[in-house]
Structures are given as structure tokens and as C-alpha cells.
Amino acid sequence: MHDKAPLPATALQITETADNIVIQNGDAHVLTYHKSEVAPPEGSSPLYKRSGFFHPVTAPNGDVVTGIHPPGHLHHMGLWHAWVKATHKGREVDFWNLATGTATVRYANTVGIRRCPEAVGFTVIQHHVILPDEVVLEETFSVEVNLHPDGHYLLDYVAVQNNVTDAPLLLPAYRYGGGIAYRGPLHWNAKNSAYLTSEGRGREDGHTTRARWCTMFGETEHGAAALTILGHPKNHDAPQRQRIWPAATEHGAIFFNFVPIQETGWALEPGQPCTMRYRLVVSAGAPDKDQVEGWFQTYVRQNAQ
Fold it and tell me: Rounded to whole angstroms, how far apart are CA atoms 23 and 44?
């Protein structure tokens, strides 16, 4: 296990344009956050256009570990989050399944870009919108990237959602939604990729179970690469339950979601912000359980408040 402080991020760079925010490690791409709406594949419904997500996310070996717009799930957008079944003032809305045409999530504006000796990052405002333009949740979304001593990319992901209306957003118990969601590269399947949770579970026995973390890894052009999601112990309903696809779903494609409402419903009340925190570790190779548990314990110590 490693409990050393991150190395100085002297090589990390962050660049903002009209369309996106890009973080690099020297000449190597780390991630792209999309400010402008990205169109779906040609011939698809324009309802699938979306902003406020990450793709590509690139491992230290240079290979991409996210996927977007898979056939049959055009709303899967690399690394993102949204609520699914929701009710607001008697209206059923869905911020996740964009084809319903009821709601979406949008980048709104940039609060700030940070360049520090140890890390780079940004804070933006995202709007969770009942279509066409009714903002229900105004979210302050912050991301910070630094380097692990072993060369992994550490991505701290913090979403603070504030209901800016005069009525609660009701979230009934449902099998997915909220939290953080991840779609792996579209070539990953049951034969060349795997899951491992903090409880030692995987593709066939991990769904609906609780976990402190889950790592997902698979083969790439330059060897194995992994994306690991660590859940903060103070998140709502932590350790949160998981949505993990079995091998029978899309040939074992990698899809993961930490779900705060999988067992018990919730309501986001006006004037009562909720905060969800995660740390992602993007690494080359396939980490083992002890290694990831070390990452988790370090994360908890560094974010005890």
C-alpha cells in the first residue's frame, strides 16, 4: 500500500476553450470535460445531445478508458451523473434517459480554473433542467487532478446539488441513477475486462451490493488499464449500492453506477444542498484488492471532513 503524498504536478496543464476543458500531463492527454453539447451519432434523435460529461479519459499508458454513444444506450457518456426516475410538482421527469425528452443536464458556466503546484482543477455550474428550460438543480461541480507517486492519475469529483425551486425533487428507490456513472471502452466485454469491488465481488455477483470502491479494468492496445471509483464514506447511503452489468448484458460491456437511492428513496429539498464525493484512480495495469484498499484509506484520511 502507498500512503505517500502526491508528487508535485509540475507537468499537469489545464486549458479551457469555448467548447471544453482539457487536462494534460505534459504532452499526454488525461481528460476532456465537455462544456458544449455533443451531438449523437448521425441519424439519432437530437434529444441525445448532452454536455457536462467526461470523454475521453486516458490512462497513463496512453489508452482511452471511457466510451460514449454505445448502440442501444446512446445516453451513456463516458463519465457522468444524473437522476433517473424523479417527480417534481407531480411531473415525472428523467434526467438520465434523454430520449424521454423530459429533462437533461447542461453545463452552465465556469466558476474558476485552478493551477497549483500539486494539482490542477476547475469548478463549473451544471443545471439539471426540466425541458425546455426549467432549472430544478443548480450544481456546483468541482474536479481536481493530481499525480499519484506511482504515476496514476487521481481525479477528485465533487458535486454539490442545490434545489433552487420551491418544491422537493422526489427520488423513489430505483436500480440506477445519481451518484456517479461510468461506461468503459466499447470494445471491453466479458472476455477482456472485469470488475472488482471492495467486498471481493465482480461481474456476476456485484450488482445491488454495497462497496467502498469498485475497480474496472480491461485490455487496451498498450496492455491493461483501469478506472477505479472510491466512494466517500460520508456520501448519502454510504457505502453505496452498485449497478453492475452481468456478462449477459451487451456481451459483458463495462457499465457501473454508484446508486444512492437503490434501496431507499430520497428527496432533494429546496435550500438543503446535498454533496456527493468520489475519487477516481486512472491507472495502467490491473490493480489488486490490497492496492485499491490502500488508495481508499489514503483518500479517507485526506478528506476526513
Answer: 30
